[in-house]
TrEMBL record, chains A, B:
This protein's UniProt keywords: Aminopeptidase, Hydrolase, Protease
InterPro entries given in the database record: Creatin/AminoP/Spt16_N (IPR029149), Creatinase/aminopeptidase-like (IPR036005), Creatinase_N (IPR000587), Pept_M24 (IPR000994), Peptidase_M24B (IPR050659)
Molecular function GO labels: aminopeptidase activity
Top-rank taxon: Bacteria
Organism of derivation: Desulfosporosinus fructosivorans
Domain annotation Peptidase M24: ranges: 143-377
The name this protein goes by in its record: Aminopeptidase P family protein
Pfam families, per database record: Creatinase_N (PF01321), Peptidase_M24 (PF00557)
Creatinase N-terminal domain span: 11-135
Length: 396, 396
């Protein structure tokens, strides 16, 4: 699906306003989600966006596909040293201050830009990019709703295929395959350096409570020391909570959701904790209103869990493995702004999309929790984008 | 599978020799494949390696798992600013010249190290790391052989499940699921900035000949503009070549292989081209001998294809989309050294592992080719690590 010209023009104008406010004369963008966002193509391109005027989309590979995919004009980039030439040919000045994505750009590549633009002062433009991308347009929200619908179909399929004796990786394989057959894009993009992600955490019983390198409350045990997150090769057992924490990405837009399934009934205590998780999710959803500061919402939720439940020490991980957030922005990347996290200063705005994920971790037993992707709308609280039933799914 | 102490000690000594030759007093490593290689854990760690003495493995998350996984002692990292403290506590000097992975390290993270080590001069240590990692130990070769065996099982499974009317993504889902159930690690690591990879290119007919952002001869069309590589949602048709280009990663080690399947017979011409591809693969395999320069092997192969086949313009892509390599190193990352590519200066050594991949691309029709992972041994030519049949797989 092509990103419409009116959508790209809207994104350009907002970004140029941010550039002008930050006194940045132009931004040269290379990170894939950023270039997809501003150009409409996920091919290998550099996008130069002046503080006013048209963007220059320079495609290295594949040029012809980029040309057919982007609504902007696309030029063929013969090498990075030619970038100044394209800027001049577009009638634009070489800026004195240029923005780069210094949060992700490797040092050696940065040094090449310094040689290509010897008189330019470079600044980090990633805060402007990330803040803009946090707020989704109507067109983007429609894409997120499509992803959510496919996610719901995958969860329905999970109930069909789940059976005693299957392994976590088998279940993951079936769900990932189903998602792909419905249009899942495959690779789930993350902005953070050296982030690794594959499908999600399909994890059950005690293994779900094992912590790992991934910055999440529930990450799964993985199949080996070399791949220490996600599904393991262990069999799924009767009466254990099965965490299906998956990201569905369709047309680039990600929906992050967690549901608990089980084969046979869960213990009364786990069922009670699940009801608590749903309550906490409602608290988070209702607290996500425009004008509030993300870090204050986080503290409010932590306080509520401490004062109203006996599970404070199990909330969002256990012991030293607890994470300090209850939600994170999602969109073209899995790790977008805002994070509903300790000390987060972002002011919430309508159109921000957040995966909220209260989870309770019981070492040796398992995890119960829930996660949904929501959009911030007004003072009534955020609205669900996720369309799946929020009931426990118990298969006999 | 834990990396044995004797293996880690061997890696350490070789690296320290390289550091001493480059007059680097210590290296601080953070890229996941590098830290896994030198520490034995894939948790979130910093590894400081002095030019002589023991390495310091500093785990941020998950500390307890890192401690149980690494054969080295592991300390808990409370924050990056504490790194100098750990170096001093180990009785080591703060070096005057410190190596960092400047090929991958983001600028903002680099700036943090500059603040933490205000008097240190930083240099790029990635050439030393990459050259060492290119040469595999016996222990690593045994892991690669395990990956190859699982890859062969997945290809056998492909022949069982392939049927008329299935889509490319359906086939991919089944193969990826099977691979996972046999221990595939999921995420396929790549070192290159913003590289994206998911399973491989399961692609058929004309779609296999479509180029994309991925730097490969055959990349697949993908499911959308936002995900423009890999399998598409199109149905697999009778008589069309089906490219199964997949990476299998087990215990961290990757085997990259391509086989051609079809439902019903392929045309005589495509079958002839496939025989040519096998001949070219043999040429490459026999040319990979210790002491030769990678770029010279590349030129020799290109010359042979030009002089001995009518398919020069279809070799390794078509038109402006042709890639300039016929092989690439594989191991913990998919994009390791050496590349058998235009101008490549690496001198081949015993123990280097290379995926060799002659492919012929016919726009509008499809792709035939082959790819195997091999190890350089002696003047007899490289030895196959891949264990799958190299015959065309034609299903009725």
């Amino acid at each position: 699906m092509k990103v419409p010209m009116i959508e790209l023009e809207g994104r350009l104008l907002i970004f140029q306003d941010l550039l002008q406010k930050s006194r940045i004369e132009g931004a040269l963008l290379v990170q894939r989600a950023d270039t997809l966002y501003y150009s409409g193509t996920a091919q290998n391109v550099h996008v130069y966006i002046p503080a006013s005027g048209k963007p220059i989309v320079m495609a290295y590979r594949d040029f012809l596909r980029a040309k057919s995919e982007s609504s902007w004009e696309v030029v063929q980039l013969q090498g990075m040293s030619k970038i100044p030439k394209y800027i001049k040919e577009a009638g634009l000045p070489i800026p004195e201050i240029m923005g780069l994505e210094l949060d992700v750009l490797p040092v050696n590549q940065f040094e090449r830009y310094r040689k290509i633009f010897p008189d330019v002062k470079f600044v980090d433009v990633s805060p402007e990019v990330r803040l803009q991308r946090a707020v989704k347009s109507k067109w983007e929200l429609a894409r997120l709703e499509e992803s959510a619908q496919i996610h719901t179909l995958v969860l329905e399929f999970a109930k069909e295929v789940l059976h005693e004796g299957m392994t976590e990786v088998e279940l993951e394989g079936l769900l990932a395959g189903k998602a792909r057959s419905l249009g899942h894009g495959g690779h789930v993009r993350m902005r953070g350096f050296d982030s690794e992600f594959h499908v999600g955490a399909i994890t059950s019983g005690a293994r779900a409570a094992v912590s790992s390198c991934f910055d999440g409350a529930v990450t799964g045990q993985g199949v080996s020391i070399a791949h220490p997150t996600g599904a393991s090769m262990a069999q799924i057992k009767l009466g254990e909570p099965i965490v299906v924490d998956m990201v569905t990405v369709v047309h680039g837009y990600q929906v992050d959701q967690t549901r608990i399934l089980s084969l046979g009934s869960l213990s009364k205590e786990l069922r009670e904790v699940y009801e608590v998780a749903k309550q906490v999710e409602e608290k988070i959803r209702r607290a996500l209103v425009p004008g509030r500061v993300a870090g204050e919402v986080y503290e409010e939720i932590l306080t509520w869990v401490r004062e109203n439940t006996p599970y404070e020490e199990n909330f969002m991980g256990y012991g030293s493995s607890r994470v300090r957030f209850v939600g994170h922005g999602v969109g073209l990347d899995l790790d977008e702004l805002p994070t509903i996290s300790k000390g987060a200063k972002e002011v919430l705005k309508p159109g921000m999309v957040v995966a909220i994920e209260p989870k309770f971790v019981f070492p040796g037993f398992g995890v119960v929790g829930i996660e949904d992707t929501v959009v911030i709308v007004d003072e009534e609280g955020a609205k669900y984008i996720s369309s799946s039933s929020r009931e426990l799914s118990i298969q006999s």
